[in-house]
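Researcher: Sequence recovery benchmark, item below. Answer with residues only.
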């Protein structure tokens, strides 16, 4: 096999690995959803025309540390938080439609307070009291358009982008602010609010 074919084979194999992981996640979610009521939540998303903005198995992921914390891998937010879910998904939809947010994967969304504490989340985190998503972008993605959107429209959206030391991006509509790896606005990948 020549180097070009080896390179193409490596790309194909990487895609197959990603597809297998995605298929495994979907099967895991289907097994979990069989024992947990997700119908009313899904219906709310359909009625709000937000179903599919984020694949449902990603939208209901609890926290990456769910195993360590002996928690469920998925969680449906309490109905009282559904307006915040709609708000955050409407923001994600807008960012996608405007080409500001390209491909992404949601790794964590709603967390109950006990899981949030075990996973090292902030006290009063938007993951527990409103609705937030932690996502990863491809390595080649530029976060600057997201920051420019936040600077121009963040206050109107009540938008709070942040970045964890791991590089994951946090988005919510629970307050106009930004933060970075140390939890402060000064280390944010976006400029401080005016």
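Model:
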């Amino acid at each position: 096999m020549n180097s070009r074919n080896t390179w193409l084979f490596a790309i194909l194999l990487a895609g197959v690995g990603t597809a297998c992981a995605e298929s495994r996640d979907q099967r895991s979610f289907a097994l979990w959803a069989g024992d947990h009521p997700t119908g009313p939540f899904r219906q709310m998303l359909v009625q709000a025309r937000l179903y599919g903005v984020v694949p449902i198995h990603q939208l209901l992921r609890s926290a990456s540390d769910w195993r360590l914390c002996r928690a469920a891998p998925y969680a449906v937010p309490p109905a009282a938080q559904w307006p915040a879910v709609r708000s955050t998904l409407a923001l994600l939809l807008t960012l996608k439609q405007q080409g500001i947010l390209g491909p992404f994967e949601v790794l964590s969304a709603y967390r109950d307070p006990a899981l949030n504490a075990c996973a090292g989340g902030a006290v009063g985190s938007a993951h527990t009291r409103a609705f937030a998503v932690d996502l990863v972008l491809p390595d080649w993605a530029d976060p600057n358009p997201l920051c420019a959107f936040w600077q121009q429209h963040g206050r109107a959206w009540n938008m709070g982008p942040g970045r964890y030391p791991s590089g994951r991006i946090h988005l919510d509509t629970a307050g106009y602010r930004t933060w970075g790896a140390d939890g402060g606005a000064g280390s944010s990948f976006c400029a401080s609010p005016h």
